[in-house]
Amino acid sequence: MTALMGVIAERKAQTTGKPSYVANLMKGGGGAIGAKLIEEAAEVVEASDEPGDAGREHLVKEVADLIFHTAVLLGYRDLSWDDVEAELQRRFGTSGLTEKASRKPKT
Fold first, then answer.
1. Contact 23, 14 (CB under 8 A)
2. pTM score over 0.90
3. What is the CATH classification number for the domain harbouring 8?
4. Rounded to whole angstroms, how far apart are CA atoms 64 and 67?
5. How many CB atoms lie within 10 A of CB 21?
6. From CA 2, how far away is CA 37, in angstroms rounded?
7. Which of 31, 39, 56, 58 could lock 47 by a disulfide, CB 3.0 to 4.6 Å apart?
8. How many CB atoms lie within 10 A of CB 104?
9. 89 in a structural domain
10. What is the domain range of residue 63?
11. What is the pLDDT tens value at each position of the chain, 107 positions in all?
């Protein structure tokens, strides 16, 4: 994941050169990246019920797309995958119900 985040950072900093999918997404801002995340999440859900080995393979590919676009959003916000791992580690050993109840309500 470190290598991917490095490429994303390079594409974010890119001002000239070859066209870049990541750079184009970032130009659209959080809204454009978020729209792509919504699309990819829907594709993950659709693929989750596909049977057999082909369905499993399709699900893996769609989850990879979702994670990739999540990484782009993190890079856009100057966050790293390490930040996500640290948060998951913080939650480790805590019930999901307990963790969710501890969050501040959205206003």
1. yes
2. no
3. 1.10.287.1080
4. 5
5. 10
6. 20
7. 58
8. 5
9. yes
10. 2-101
11. 999 999 999 999 987 778 899 999 999 999 999 999 999 999 999 999 999 999 999 999 999 999 999 999 999 999 999 999 999 999 999 888 887 888 787 77
Long-range contacts (CB closer than 8 Å, 24 or more residues apart) made by 4-10 = 4/68, 4/71, 4/81, 5/71, 5/74, 5/75, 5/80, 5/81, 8/71, 8/72, 8/74, 8/75, 9/75
Domains of the chain: total = 1
Distances (CA, A) of 34 to 51, 63, 65: 29, 15, 13
DSSP state of 20: -
Q: CA nearest 41: which of 23, 64, 24? A: 64
